[in-house]
Amino acid sequence: xxxxxxxxxxRLAAQFTRDGHEVGFFVMNGDPVPDWPTVGGAGSVPGxxxxxxxxxxxxxxxxxxxxxQANLCAxxxxxxxxxxxxxxxxxxxECTGQRLxxxxxxxxxxxxxLGGGRAVAVSEPLAGALSRRLLWRRERLHNCPNAVIGDExxxxxxQPPPCPVPESYLLAVGRxxxxxxxxxxxxxxxxxxxxxxxxxxxxxxxxxxxxxxxALAARLGIASRVWFTxxxxxxxxxxxxxxxxVLSSRHxxxxxxxxxxxxxxxxxxxxxxxxxxxxxxxxxxxxVLVPPDDPHALAEGLRRGLEWxxxxxxxxxxxxxxxxxxxxxYRVWNR
Length: 335
Hints:
The chain is an alpha/beta fold. It has 13 helices and 12 strands.
C-alpha cells in the first residue's frame, strides 16, 4: 500500500473519517492497509467478488474502486445492490505493461456506467481521452483531484532527513520502473554535466529496475554522483533540501510527487507526457516542461530548472488537499 494510488486513497479515507464517515479498505492482493480496517485477501477475481459482496451486505453504502481489476470486481460485486460506486482511472489509456488497450477500456467504462455507476479520471486530459472512448453516458464521467496534500505535509518536510544526502542535489522520486523514465534521467544528467557543473542526483524509490539503473549509472561513469536511497516512508525532508525536483516519466495520470514538490515550493522540471504535468504546471508557468523520453531535451531542462524561481503566491495546488478532494467525490456521489 505504498504506491502513489494507494497513498492517495489513504489520504482520501482519512478525510472521509474526519468528515464523520466510517471507512475501511477491501484489498484484492492480501496486503493489509496499515492503521485501517482491512478485509479481502489473495485469490481469484471471482473469489474477491464474493468476499466484497459479503462486505456490502454488512451495510457498506459507498465504494471507490481503483485500478482496473478492482473496478471490474466492484462492478460484479455490486450488481443488484444499492451501493453507490465510483470507478476511478489514474493512468493514461496507453501505458507500459497494461494488458487492456484504449478501445477495451472504453467498453469497460461504458459497462461501469450502466445503472447508477459514476467514473472519475484524475486529470482533465485523461477525462477527455476516456470520454471519447465511452459509448454512452459521458455525463457520468468526472474529473476529481487526487488527495495528495495534507495538513501534515510541511511538518513532515521539516523533520531531519531520513538518510544521508549530499549537501546540494537534484531530486527524483518514484517507483523504479520503465514508465518513470529514470534511464532517461541518468542519460540527461550525463549530457547536462558536460555543459555545466551539476549538483548530485538523488533518486528515491524502489522497484524492478533498480539493478538495471545501478548498472546504467556505472556504465555512464556517474555512479559516485547518483544516490539511490530506496523506498522512504517520509521523503519530504529531501524535497525541502533539493535544488530542483525532476519528473522524467514517459507517461503519468496525475503525478503525486510533482504535486508535492509544487506544494513545498521546490523548482521543478517535468516531462510533458500525455496527461498530468502540463495541467499541473499551467503550460509551463509554474515549472519547466520538456518533451518526454528525450535525454537531450531533459538535459537542457535541468540547466534551465536550476535557474528557475517558482512564482510567488500561487495557490493552484490547494485543490489537491484532502478536504477539496473529498468534497469533489461527495459531489460526484450526490449527482
